[in-house]
Design a protein that fits this description.
Layout lengths: L1 E5 L6 H10 L5 E4 L10 H9 L4 E3 L3 H6 L10 H13 L2 H8 L4 E3 L3 E4 L14 H8 L6 E4 L6 E5 L6 E4 L6 E3 L5 E5 L13 E7 L4 E7 L3 H10 L4 H9 L2
Parallel strand pairs: 1-2, 2-3, 5-6, 6-10
Antiparallel strand pairs: 1-11, 4-5, 7-8, 7-10, 9-12, 11-12
Helix pairs in contact: 2-5, 7-8
The chain binds zinc ion.
Length: 244
């Protein structure tokens, strides 16, 4: 199986189309949530994601915020303004699609969680000590998470005594044949925050036993123009050029 793993699209249609144009053939798509909010094309991104073949899709905190399932008190003023705008733009079809989604999904091979296994909607999984607690919360060899918008790999030794982490760059391949368990973040399609403005995703190839990280440039000036014309906060446009 060749899986396309992506998340945090954040209503950025140009970035999503660039990823789908770059990723090649795949057998199934795993989407880690936050399809909407921040960006100018929420309905188009929901529709495009929903059309991906053999899709498993999670709900994220921003999806829930836009249809009123979480309080906006936890958001800063820009995020709150964007959530209110997105909620007002959301079509009935988009709302129906998002409302059917769950915050985790699991098979015997993998767990998916928008944020973390312990707190699927809210935890920013950034440090080894957090990963250590989270490895104890699931049994599969592999877990994919989103939410931080930073590509990252946590690996735990087979005996569970040690967890290490690193930040993968574009083109890095991970060999899964070493018996380590992993929590892997593919980074964000629509609002990267690791200083690289290119859209981020990964390919998990079960036949090869590898995960490969990819970045793809997209015309973010178009997205920025749409954000400003929609009256969304200018900072949400600016951050797309610096990837922060
Ligand atoms: Zn997000």
């Amino acid at each position: 199986m060749r899986y396309l793993v992506l998340g945090d699209v954040h209503a950025n249609l140009e970035a999503l189309e660039a990823v789908l144009g770059d990723c090649g053939e795949y057998d199934a798509a795993l989407c880690l949530g936050d399809l909407i909010d921040y960006g100018p094309n929420p309905n188009e991104c929901v529709e495009r994601t929903a059309s991906l073949s053999h899709l498993t899709c999670l709900v994220g905190n921003h999806d829930q915020a836009a249809f009123g399932h979480v309080s906006l008190d936890a958001f800063n003023s820009q995020a709150r303004a964007a959530a209110v705008w997105t909620g007002s733009m959301l079509s009935a079809a988009s709302r129906t699609f998002l409302e059917t989604l769950h915050s985790t999904a699991a098979t015997s091979e993998y767990l998916l969680a928008h944020a973390s296994p312990l707190e699927p909607i809210w935890e920013y999984l950034e440090f080894e000590w957090q990963a250590t607690l989270n490895f104890a919360a699931f049994e599969q060899p592999l877990c994919f998470v989103g939410h931080t918008h930073v590509p990252k790999v946590f690996a735990q030794t087979a005996a569970g005594e040690h967890v290490e982490c690193f930040l993968p760059r574009d083109g890095v391949d991970i060999d899964l044949s070493d018996g380590m368990r992993r929590i892997v973040n593919p980074g964000s399609v629509g609002q990267p925050r690791d200083g690289d403005p290119r859209a981020s995703y990964l390919i998990w190839d079960t036949a090869l036993g590898t995960i490969s990280f990819h970045r793809v440039a997209y015309p973010f000036a178009i997205t920025q123009g749409k954000i400003l014309r929609a009256g969304l906060p200018g900072a949400l446009a600016y951050r797309l050029s610096c990837g922060r």
